[in-house]
Design goal:
15 helices
């Protein structure tokens, strides 16, 4: 008989494979149909690209991206299907489903004047999914599914932290896109004003004046640093408090790399303005204190911090110098990827707040 005072058994670590698979499918769909505007009825059938001549012009970047993008899809799909099917059947089904997804997206691209559907893209996508499924056949689905669990234990991640790790990975990806304010995200109002010009006057009326911009920028960066750090703290076990600084450090390195690419190596730290330094320092000091709070207090503080940062990012006036710099940025073949990063930046804080609320519900009763 189990003693009534005995500690409850620890929950097993789960791989959250389905969450990663759905997230990757969403990434592929968004990038494939970017910019999601200008839809029109074409004068040819949607599947006409299957019989059209091969394109005369192509780049190695396009070939690489079409191939590499579907490798994780084939791998994740085959691994997930292997829970229900024999490994060989799971690999074949994964490749077929990836091919159907690619064919559907290529057909939908016919409705977008900015995109060009082509048979080579479809074949490269299928080839990428085949490579991913082949890895599952060679290594084995059980070993692959055990790998993230082993990594989670080695990194001392808390149980059920898979979607949270995915959120932090998305936040780091967002930092790879230039931002007018360091770590800015959730800028929904400017996006709505661009889509609905009638809202522009209202937006201008609620924006902060220039004299408040330095203070608001410091507060927004401090709140983001605190919120992201507390989310990271909730994902690790109690003896791994030092890991909370890792997302901020990696985010700073990403922003330095982007600045060096956009403005030159000498300006790698151009993003690290006085306001950014003050905000990161203030956020770090608060984070040192917050890391020792109880889980419920940490999650509530993270929610409040991310909400404050999001409001401030929406109310900050536009940075004319930044906008002129971005206007001259030649994105080339990375246009679709940068579009995805902008979309992630818009939705990220809302998804992070939703995740924190879900974790808070899980931890009900923890004081």
């Amino acid at each position: 008989m189990i003693s009534p005072t005995a500690a409850p058994p620890a929950r097993p670590v789960r791989s959250h494979l389905a969450a990663w698979l759905l997230a990757w499918i969403a990434v592929i769909v968004y990038v494939s149909l970017h910019p999601w505007s200008g839809w029109r009825v074409p004068g040819v059938p949607l599947l006409a690209f299957l019989s059209e001549p091969w394109p005369r012009y192509w780049t190695r970047l396009d070939l690489m991206m079409n191939l590499v993008a579907y490798v994780p899809l084939g791998l994740l799909g085959a691994t997930w299907l292997a829970r229900r099917l024999p490994t060989g059947a799971a690999a074949v089904t994964s490749v077929v489903c990836a091919g159907l997804l690619s064919c559907s997206l290529e057909a939908l691209q016919t409705l977008l004047p900015a995109r060009v559907s082509s048979l080579p893209d479809l074949l490269l996508n299928v080839a990428g999914a085949f490579v991913g499924a082949l890895v599952v056949l060679v290594v084995g689905p059980r070993r692959l599914e055990a790998l993230p669990i082993a990594i989670a234990r080695a990194l001392a991640l808390a149980p059920g932290s898979g979607p949270g790790v995915l959120l932090l990975a998305a936040w780091l990806d967002v930092q790879c896109h230039p931002q007018s304010v360091a770590f800015a995200s959730g800028e929904l109002l400017p996006l709505l004003a661009g889509r609905f010009p009638a809202l522009d006057g209202w937006l201008q009326s609620i924006r902060l004046s220039g004299e408040w911009q330095p203070v608001a920028e410091v507060c927004a960066i401090a709140a983001t640093t605190l919120g992201v750090g507390l989310l990271a703290r909730d994902l690790v076990r109690n003896h791994s408090r030092t890991a909370i600084a890792l997302p901020i450090v990696l985010g700073a390195l990403a922003k330095s790399a982007v600045s060096a690419n956009l403005l030159g190596a000498r300006n790698a730290l151009a993003w690290l303005s006085a306001g950014t330094q003050g905000g990161m320092l203030a956020g770090a000091l608060l984070l040192v204190l917050g890391a020792w709070w109880r889980p419920r207090a940490r999650l509530l503080t993270a929610i409040a911090a991310l909400a404050i940062a999001t409001v401030l990012h929406n109310l900050l006036p536009p940075n004319v110098y930044f906008e002129s710099t971005i206007a001259g940025w030649q994105q080339g073949g990375w246009t679709n990827v940068n579009g995805l990063l902008r979309a992630l930046a818009v939705v990220w804080p809302f998804a992070a707040i939703a995740w924190a609320l879900w974790r808070l519900r899980q931890r009900r009763g923890i004081l």
